[in-house]
Amino acid sequence: RMGLRDVLLERRSRLYVELFHRSPTPAAVLGRSNWVFPTLVGILDASRGTAKLPEKRLALWQHALESRRDFCESLGAEYVAVFAPEKPTIYPDFLPSYLDVRPPTAYDQLLARLERHSDFRVLDIRPLMFEERGRDHGDDFAYYPLGTHWTDRAIYSAYELVVARLAGRFPNLAATPLAALHWKDDPDEGDTWAFNLRLVGRLHQHAPVLQEIEQYDCEVGRPGADDGHLVVRGPDPTRPKLVLFHDSFGDRMRKLFARDFSECYFSWGTFEPEIVERERPDVVIELRAERQALLHR
Fold first, then answer.
1. According to a count of CB atoms within 10 Å of the terminal CB, is the N or C end of the chain lower?
2. pLDDT in tens, 99-145
């Protein structure tokens, strides 16, 4: 209620960032070239390896993934688990100099556990994301410098890899060619913390986005009037049916999947066997942020 509060907070943020090169809030740290790295919900712990998983938690993860695979297969569905790398995992050199990386990360631990004790394999897309980083040019990056998430360029590469992983079992399934999609510049600059830092108009990033993701016209319904659940129908009824469980990293990718499957059920949340049993899909995908490896869900 204080007069000029917004102006004073903006000036404070400018002082922190422009003079001291520090974040004005503990919810984020400021890295090289003013890259913003949020500190919320274990992002830095997951990507820096500062939080380790005990063997008991790793065993729980193994059991959960194998159980989900077995449950889906019992219903005739292919199960794919994917962890989206965090931005600091792909761009550790943009972190502040006082934040080091201490491998192995929780995700490293999980992959090693599965390699030693299980026949189940997570689809590891970190190598692909490092390849995407190698394609960075100018101000076009695989992840948003001012945000948390990957850009549409990285989203498309991950989507294409997942579809390729499924094509062996479903020969009529194919990713939409990138040449058939169209790019445009997002006037809102994509995923950015400029507003959170009260530096709109001061911090900028280039945000090329896929127009087909922005425009969405195949929605069938929202079960229970819940924005976290969405049903869409694709153009080819002969293609397989998909259930996708996802968090914010899968939000934009689902609009690419919608073009390739006969029908999709998108659920923002954890794996729910009731949905799989009810929908009877051909494919079940879990797409989670890397930080979720610190949890057991």
1. N
2. 999 999 999 999 999 999 999 999 999 999 999 999 999 999 999 99
